[in-house]
Each structure stands twice: as C-alpha cells, then as structure tokens.
Amino acid sequence: MSHHPSPQKLPLAPKALDSPDYETWTREELIVRLKELTGSPNTLQTTTPTPTFPSQPPALPLVSSSLAPSPPSTSGSKKRLPEDSKPKREFDFAAYPTRKIALKFSYAGAGYGGLAWQAMPTPLPTVEGVLFAALAKARLVDPDGGLEGCGWERCGRTDRGVSAAGQVVSLYVRSSHRRSAVPAKASGDAPDGFLNDDDDAHTPPTVPERDIRYLHMLNAILPPSIRVYAWAPVASSFSARFSCRTRHYKYFFSARSLDVDAMRDGAARLVGEHDFRNLCKLDPAKQLTSFRRRILRADISHIAVGGGGGSTHMHVLDLVGSAFLYNQVRHIMAVLLLIGARLEVPGVISALLNADPAAPPAVLEGEPPPPCVTCKPEYQMADALPLVLWECTYAAEDAQWRADDAGSDGGSVGLYSQLVGLAERAQVEATLAEHFLAAAAPLHELAARGTGSMLTREANGKERGPWDVPLGGGTTRREGNYVPLLNRKRLDSVEVVNERWRTRRKGKEST
After folding, report:
1. 95-244: what fold?
2. SS3 label, residue 178
3. Model's pTM, two decimal places?
4. Which of 59, 93, 164, 436 is the least crowded, having the fewest Cβ atoms under 10 Å away?
C-alpha cells in the first residue's frame, strides 16, 4: 500500500458555528461527503450552460458572438486547465504571404441592417460585419486591421432588407504558402504591408494546385443566410467597385391585380441615358450635381415558380445598368406599381425623366411632349424585401470565378445541397400561404372579387376611392383620395438641398 503524506496545513479563516471540522475527517469520509454534496457519478450535472444561438447574427461591430468558439466540453476524464491559465497562441500573419481575391456571395437581407459595416451599433447586424468576422475567425485576415487593413472594396451597397444573389467584394487574404526567402514583388496598388503573388499588377495570378478552400472555411462559420459560392484570384489593380462592367437588379412582385402590359410600357421608357433625379433619393452628403445614368435593359417577365408551368402571379422587373443612384431601383418600381394599379399612365415615366430643360427626352410617336419636372414630387419608394442585386459582371480576364480546388468539386456539392434546402423550405412556406388564402376566400367572396378591380379602373385614379396603393412585397397603403404624381407637392431642387447641407456643415465646423 502506498503511503500518502499528510496534507500541509494552511491558516484557516474562523469557522462557522455549525461548520463540521473537516480537518479531523479521514480521506474516505471526505470522499463520501463530496458525493453527497455533488450527487452520484450517474446523476452528476455540469454547471456549464448550454450555448444558445440567436436566429439572426448579433449586431456587433466586427466580431460576432455567434462566431465565437463553443464552451469546452465537460465529457471525458481529461482535466482541463481554466481558460485564464491557458497560454494564448498568437497567430503570426507575418509568416504568410497575402494574395488579392474576389469573393462572390449571396445573402437574405431581411435579417440584416444593410450590407455596409457601420461604425456605430446598429439594431441588426450588417452583412459586411458578419462576413469580416468569419474571415477573421478563419485567420484569413488580421482582425486588428479592420476593413481598411485588408483593402476591402464592395461592388454595390445595398440597404437594410435588400438581398443579393451575386454581391462581390475584393480584399487581400492569407495565402496557403509560407513566405519564401525571395519576397514577392510589391505592387503600388496594394495596401501597405500587402504583397500579391503576381508579378504584374494588372494580370490575375495563377492558382496553385492546392490552395486554401476559401468557400469551405467561410461557409462553415457563416450563418445560412450568407453563402459564399465562388472566388477568383485577381490582380492588385482589381477593384470590386470600379472594375464592374454592369450591375443587374431584380425586383419580384405579384401581378395578381396589376396591368402588366402598362408596366412594361413604362419600363421600356427607362432604357437609354436619362436624368434620374426624380427617380432616386437625394443624398446631400455626396454633393452630386449630375444624375445621368444609362439603363441597358428594363423589362418585366412572368416567373414560373420552381421551374414548373403552373399558374402563378409572380413577375420580375430586370434592370441592368452600368451604375445606379441611391435607392434608384426602389423609386422606379414604386412608379411602375402605380402604373400597374392604373393610378398613373405610362407617360408619367417620360415626365419624371424630363428633369433637365436643356436635354429633353425623345418624344414617343403619337404622344405629346412630356412636361418638364425639375423637382421631385413626393411619393413613397417601393418595399425593400423583393429587391435583389442579382449579378455584378466583370471582364472574363479580370475575374475567373471558381469553386474550391480548381478542377474538382471542392465541396461544392454540399454547398449546393444547402441552397436547394433553403429554396425548398421557402417554396413550402409560399405554398402554405397560398393555401391559407384559398381557405379564407369562400368566406370573403366580396373581398376576393375586389382584388381585380384595379384592372378596370380608369387611369389616373379619376374614379372614387379609397385606393389600396401597392408598395411591393405584399404591402399597400390605403388612400381615400389619390393625388396624381405630377399634381403633388414638389421637394426642394438638388441645388437647394446641396447648398443647405454645405451651410450646416460649415456651421458645425465653426463651433
């Protein structure tokens, strides 16, 4: 039998009146007492709480708690040191070279406060904040440098609630190879401290046979509402924003009681280069003086949900252009919905585009010249939910998109299966909603018949209301007396708004 030395006695605090004298107890008695206090080994419960994760990512500036490591497991017989006593191993980013890449990803905007990261706390997390946190946790970027430290650039900014199917960001990330003795050639376009693997700043670098599985790493950390599905090695001079050739937006809507042909007439008037100051939101902080943008495509088509040929009311507006103004697509869609409801005529688009007296638009055959509208009328833009940044296009030589591990599926099968599951769940929810509507229709026959009344309404709303003005996304606004757009109160001109902002800024700087 081995001999156990007596434990060293330490000064004790004064004992409580009813406290047992454990110093006089034998080892076996102490073990029995511990089992009584903690329970038997079969019923022993850990005091470590089970982590719970919110359905949406928490709103933190950069690092989300939903991306933090889970608490250590208490199962097994191995003893674990307290977290505070564990030596923290710092990751040496300087030991690795960097490369510039572009990431293509999708996100459902309903759970986020917009794409762009915000310096101040926001009620909902931002897409960039969650994506950067995933990149930092995967040790692809240094979290201390923030967005500027990795040369972060986005293609197009989307507002709160707006989704994207083909958003693109470009940045410098850690490469898979250790630094060689000969340093890579630095490009003048790269941020300080970053070297690209390519020798030519304007030529995309080649991909090694075995590179980091960027998609697998990021999608394992990101929430299901954000999926990175392609990446491309790009040159140091590549810019997700300025290298983009065209941007394609889609706006989905139900045409259950809308005149789609009239909406198509209005959309066709958007094609070409026009002054869109009456079809956007003015942002005086940008001090814009030119609102001319070119629309390459504007058409409305029917959607067969799920790829089948079943009857559906869903349609989509496809809008393609080289660049867009602030909230331009949602303003365009708001007016098109008014045209579809026969509250406005398609010619109102021509009038709103006639904002510059020095450059009047072309007059359509058989129509009178549209009135000049130099100041924007008051109206509410369309709902954000159905708007999607569908695609950002680049020259083939600038960005060659790929999945993980060029030449193999690289885990793309698993990613695609996830997207299929998300689509099927959304279709189930849509089917349930349609069946709920069908179940209620027999008991609300009069209301059901009234949903088609807009198709027989006289244009410009000359009939008596009240009107349910469509706003997109299944939302409406009830108006007792509809006022045509061109008869409404006008907002201040661009020049007045810009000057007022400059005056206020000078006043703040002088105080």
Report:
1. Alpha-Beta Plaits (3.30.70)
2. coil
3. 0.75
4. 436
